[in-house]
Amino acid sequence: MAEIEVKASQWRLVEVGRVVLFNNGPYTGRLATIVEIIDHKRALVDGPSDNEKVAPVPRHAISLANIILTPIVIPKLPRAAGTGAVAKAWKKEEVEEKWSASAWAKKREQMLKRRSLTDFDRFKVMRLRKQARFEVRKSHAKVRASAKS
Question: pLDDT tens, 109-128?
Answer without folding.
Answer: 999 999 999 999 999 999 99
